Amino acid sequence: MGKKSLNRFLQEKEFRSFYELLVRESGLEEMGRFPQHGSTSRLMHSVAVAYYSYRLARWTRLSFHWEELVRGALLHDYFFYDAQDGDPAHRWHWTRHPAVAAENAKKEVPLTSIEEDTIRSHMFPLTLKPPKYREGVVVSLVDKACSVYEFFSRRAPYSTLRDEVIPQRSVGASVLFLLPEMAGD
To answer: How far apart are CA 162 and CA 20, in angstroms?
Structure first.
């Protein structure tokens, strides 16, 4: 195995460990019941944002708080309702949901200041709260890119990523396990 392949393998293993720990601590997999953009579930969107944020941050070779980056990205849309259901209570959802997601996450898991800031600021510049940390900047950028991709790829967004996300156990809702090959080289 070459140095590049070994580094990629170790990074994928690290990402999976962050994901699996958060799934055990929270109701993260419950987000799979709610739509996000087009045919994408909220869980699939959050996994994609977390994975591609992690990959982009690794590519920059800058220093990041890796676990906090992944956790903040996975929890950035941590709310349990269909925002597109026409309910008047969900009006202005796009400006309010970062605070709702942060409060929901804080009820289940302790958040660091980086994680909370990442969740609360991920809608910048559509909201007025800019990220304080580079983790939040990356997640905010990747969230926008994933949202646009999901909107225009309504039939099968993340087909490669989706094919590599498999159920690992069936205790309650299925828990997802991410494989290293999910985004190719």
So the answer is: 17
The domain spans of the chain are 3-80+90-183
Per-residue pLDDT of the chain (185 residues; tens, 9 = 90+): 676 677 777 888 898 899 999 999 999 988 887 768 777 888 989 999 999 999 999 999 999 999 999 999 999 999 877 776 666 665 666 778 899 999 999 999 999 999 999 999 999 998 899 999 999 999 999 999 999 988 887 677 777 666 554 334 333 343 344 444 444 43
Q: State which CATH number among 1.10.10, 1.10.3210, 1.10.1060, 3.90.105 fits the domain covering 3-80+90-183.
A: 1.10.3210
CA 7 remoteness from chain centre:
22
Nearest to 80 by CA among 38, 49, 36, 115: 36
